[in-house]
Amino acid sequence: MAMAILFLILGCFAEVESMLSHPDKITKLPGQPTLQFQQFSGYVTVDDRKQRALFYYFVEAEKDPSSKPLVLWLNGGPGCSSIGVGAFSENGPLRPNGQVLDRNEYSWNREANMLYLDTPIGVGFSYSTNTSEYGTVNDEITARVNIFFLQRWFLKFPQYAHTPLFITGESYAGHYVPQLAKLMIKFNKKKMVFNLKGIALGNPLLDFTTDLNSRAEYFWSHGLITDSTYNMFTSMCNYSQYVREYYRDNVSPVCSRAMSQVNRETSRFVDKYDVTLDVCIPSVLSQSKFIAPQQNAERIDVCVEDEIVNYLNRKDVQKALHARLVGVRRWDVCSNILDYDMLNLEIPTISIVGSLVKEGIPVLIYSGDQDSVIPLTGSRTLVNALAQELGLKTTVPYRVWFEGKQVGGWTQVYGNVLSFATIRGASHEAPFSKPKRSLVLFKSFLEGIPLPDATVRR
């Protein structure tokens, strides 16, 4: 008995020593405050010839990481950095502020071990030495590369291989996450590899037509366009038609007129990712620039993106992160070298979400309610329709939920496995604009409990 205890103690010491000497351990990021948790970052090669490598940033939970779940976070675009957007502006523990990093009081690593991945190749610090591969990337390839990354990442961090795993993300991650989860289930049917416990998607692209065409009603209901323009935007040329034509280099005169009128009335001084924001637009919110192509000319490179770009382009920061620039001269929030197959936007993923629910994987779809790029109305419609299709009964009727003494948003749950929620006052990047409310939502999701209602608020 005494010998068994001794081996257990020695084993714990060995694991601690291994983590302390881990080659990807971050000693200290320039300008960071004192932290009580460990950070890691570096590369995982995703092909045997070592031509392609994905970059990750991993922060352990603030307290007792061995008892907390592992959460993979993916940003959208396609082609925008999960490290730059997710970690350093949304739900990570640190945010650039000039020469220093400030603590994010509502970091998601309060509740989980957070893994941020720059995917696909060509995004952020991720790279391929064969640049021709940047022009052949699509959803299927991205899912395969991501699952290969995870398999090899677990070799670096074997202590997390059997930890409960959740996949989260936003925007075009509405394609990335369900397809990755579907592939995990396929792997698990041959051999149990991934301890997948749920997925959460924020303002996600799930159905091209429904999501994009809900924009017209959102604009109109928020007073951004007139009645006549709303009628034009729904009858002459809806938004999905315009985007289809745009990516085929064949914008019709009628769609050109309709979009010109919409853009004139909505104004370039209103942030479409948060219609309540003033004109200082954090252009890090451009991760949906491909979903909203007409917005490109309206980007204003100020505020948050400037802080992140300046920080991550510092040589001392890149050295501390074990990162390097390969084939590019500077780090960018969204990739300028990736040529993603944009026709993949038109492939619905809501059916994949349905297949995950059938497998018993809990799914949360949430919406920042001030986002007009992928509005809550489209997401709610899709979730309602999916619940009906699957024959799921409402287990939590549509109601408000609370963060403290304030309404945090609205929620509805179906069959205790499919959930929809809004985050009141939040933008497309909800953890950026409403961090405290987003953390409440995240905690409830991980614990599998209903969002706080009026009877339990304090």
TrEMBL record:
Q: Which InterPro entries match?
A: AB_hydrolase_fold, Peptidase_S10, Ser_caboxypep_his_AS, Ser_caboxypep_ser_AS
Q: What GO biological process terms does the UniProt entry carry, in alphabetical order?
A: proteolysis
- What's one GO MF term for it? serine-type carboxypeptidase activity
Compartment(s)? Secreted
User: Is this entry keyworded Disulfide bond?
Assistant: yes
Signal peptide positions are 1-18
Q: Which GO terms describe its cellular component?
A: extracellular region; vacuole
Principal place of residence: secreted
A Pfam family per the record: Peptidase_S10
**EC code:** 3.4.16.-
Keywords for this protein: Carboxypeptidase, Disulfide bond, Glycoprotein, Hydrolase, Protease, Secreted, Signal
Q: Does the keyword Glycoprotein apply?
A: yes
Q: What does this protein do?
A: Probable carboxypeptidase.
Of which family is this protein a member? Belongs to the peptidase S10 family.
Please identify the protein, giving its name as recorded.
Carboxypeptidase
Instruction: Record the organism.
Output: Olea europaea subsp. europaea
At the highest ranks, the source species' classification is: Eukaryota, Viridiplantae, Streptophyta, Embryophyta, Tracheophyta
